[in-house]
Design brief:
The chain is an alpha+beta fold. It contains 10 helices and 19 strands. It folds into 3 domains: 9-115, Alpha-Beta Plaits; 117-295, no CATH class; 321-407. Helix content is 30%, strand content 29%.
Length: 412
């Protein structure tokens, strides 16, 4: 039986920089990080940049330097938001990595601005298929306790409506709930490729699929659904949840980073949220709501097994030496391009840089080139810098040989 596939899908904190520090993009570059600044900020913050981790992948997004500050402003100058990028949320130690980063650079007054807790599954615990449950829900076979605001997305076919997503809660709610078909969201009809392979890796590790490329098990397609709770609290350390469907009756839950620092704790919080915000009744017009029979979808017990990633789960490894080699190669290529004014050379280097960036954004697994090819490529760049008298013809042949045109790179 598959294990509980429980994860964080969004983690963002509001904090303040220490008074005696200016933690902009240049500061983190000086600390040895690879940093990608954005040319423009946001409505609230003037600066925004992404810090890469030791694995050569994006790690944390930072927004800082409020646009409205000072005596007549809205924000303090030290205010900032830090968000763990989506891929990093799926590591076993995602919250610990965020905590270590915040502590290392002495961020203060940390508050969870938003955290999304999700669980993926192909069917509910008693065998109900999610699409069938949603269809019956919209036919009013079931009624929901708490969160009366609802939004659905799907298609109206000749044979009936097909619902892919349903969400509950208002924009002002501290907790919003969403049930949706994650397989359909990830699949790109144009390319036939699934986005975010690290999510499929989680399904694989949990035992739901056995083929990462096709999202199948035993040769059959698997429709994975996700139940997701988005938690946003204006209070430090506490989250308010409604009781009995009444906003005036509520309970406060502990809401700190420590509350979510491993998957077992995540599952405990998730089960509590299910009890409050994913509670359904069979509809009976002749009975009061509280006397209607419960529609049981999840059955949590005291001993639940959650999936964990292993060191050889390559989509998640934090010590991808191959990706790190590519990351270190990028500044060399940029310097090499800037030192040469030949149009052909500059176009060739741009092609290489574009391909590396494409691999980071789309493959997001392992580099398609071997270690031997990487060493040869590094040696080529260094040789071209040292030997300025190489002709463009020889250089072009060198590039074609190193990159191997069969891999899909075309350099004109």
């Amino acid at each position: 039986m598959p294990k509980r596939c429980i994860n964080i899908d969004w983690l963002e904190v509001h904090a303040r920089e220490p008074h005696d520090a200016y933690l902009d993009a240049s500061f983190y570059m000086q600390q040895g990080y690879y940093v990608v600044p954005r040319d423009y900020g946001t409505r609230v913050y003037r600066e925004m940049f992404v810090i890469y981790g030791e694995d050569g992948k994006p790690f944390i997004e930072v927004r800082r330097n409020p646009a409205s500050q000072g005596l007549n402003g809205i924000h303090d100058p030290e205010e900032c938001h830090l968000r763990l990028v989506n891929r990093a949320c799926y590591f076993n130690n995602a919250v610990n990595r965020m905590q270590d980063f915040l502590a290392k650079y002495h961020y203060e007054r940390i508050r969870i601005s938003r955290i999304d807790i999700c669980m993926d599954f192909d069917k509910f615990d008693r065998g109900d298929l999610p699409e069938g449950f949603v269809r019956k829900y919209f036919k009013h076979r079931y009624c929901k306790i708490n969160q009366s605001n609802i939004a659905g997305r799907g298609a109206d076919n000749w044979t009936g409506q097909e619902w892919n997503s349903v969400s509950w809660g208002s924009k002002q709610s501290q907790v919003s709930t969403k049930l949706y078909n994650k397989t359909k969201e990830l699949y790109d009809l144009k390319t036939g490729v699934f986005a975010k392979p690290y999510i499929l890796q989680a399904w694989f590790a949990a035992g739901y699929i056995d083929n990462l490329a096709t999202c199948t098990k035993n040769g059959l397609p698997v429709d994975m659904w996700r139940l997701e709770f988005s938690l946003m609290s204006p209070k430090i350390n506490w989250l308010k949840i409604e009781l009995n469907g009444k906003q005036r009756e509520y309970q406060s839950l502990r809401h700190t980073l420590d509350t979510y620092d491993n998957r077992s704790k995540l599952l405990i919080m998730f089960a509590s949220l299910v009890n409050h915000y994913f509670h359904f009744k069979y509809f009976d017009a002749n009975k009061r709501k509280d006397r209607c029979k419960d529609k049981v979808l999840f059955e949590f017990n005291e001993v639940e097994e959650v999936y964990k990633l292993q060191r050889d789960d390559y989509a998640f490894t934090e010590d991808s030496k191959k990706d790190m080699k590519w990351l270190k190669l990028i500044p060399m290529l940029i310097d090499f391009k800037n030192e040469n004014y030949d149009l052909g050379i500059r176009q060739s280097v741009n092609t290489i840089l574009d391909r590396i960036q494409w691999d980071f954004e789309h493959a997001n697994l392992v580099s398609p080139w071997s270690d031997d090819e990487l060493r040869e490529f590094e040696a080529f760049v260094q040789r071209r810098i040292d030997e300025e008298n190489l002709t463009d013809f020889v250089l072009s042949n060198e590039i074609r040989k190193v990159l191997n045109i069969k891999r899909g790179l075309c350099i004109n």
